[in-house]
Amino acid sequence: MTENQRPPLNLGEIIRRRRELAELPMRQLATMVGISGPYLSQIERGLRAPSERVLHAIADSLRTTADALVEQATPEAPPAVLAAIAQDPNLTARQRQALVEVYTALTETTIARRRRGDRRADGDRPGG
Asked: Of 17, 29, 68, 120, which is most buried by a Cβ count within 10 Å?
C-alpha cells in the first residue's frame, strides 16, 4: 500500500463518521436505534458486527440505507484470509462471523499502531 492510499474504512468507521457528521452523540444514536451505548461503541470500533436489524435501524437513524453503509465499507477485493474464512466448509456462519471480527480487530490494531509509529506493530515483542 502506498502512502497516498488509505486502507478501506470498515463498517464501524463508516457509521462513526456518519454519526459525527449528523452531530449525534453516541448515546443519542444508541437510544434512537434501541441498543446500548457500549454496544454501539463496539460496532464503531469494529469489535462487533451489527445484526441486520441493528444495521437497518442505524441506517434509518442516520438517514441512509443499510446497503449504502455496507457498500461504502466493502473493500474492492477482500484479503485472502477473509476469502478463506468465507469458503471454509468446516465453519458455521457464526464461526465465520467471529473469525472475521477477530481478524478485523487485530489488523485494525496493527494499522493504528503503524500510523502512530509504534514499533510493536510489526512484532509481538516490545522493541521488536
From this structure: 29
Per-residue pLDDT of the chain (128 residues; tens, 9 = 90+): 433 445 567 899 999 999 999 999 999 999 999 999 999 999 999 888 898 899 999 999 999 998 888 878 766 556 788 889 889 999 998 899 889 888 888 887 877 777 776 555 455 544 44
Residue with cell 521488536: 128
| CA geometry: angle 84, 86, 88, nearest 5 deg | 65
This prediction's pTM: 0.56
Distance of CA 61 to the CA centre of its chain: 18
Q: Are 22 and 33 in contact (CB under 8 A)?
A: no
Cβ distance 48 to 42 under 8 Å? yes
Q: What share of the chain is helix, strand, coil (3-state, %, to 5)?
A: 65, 0, 35
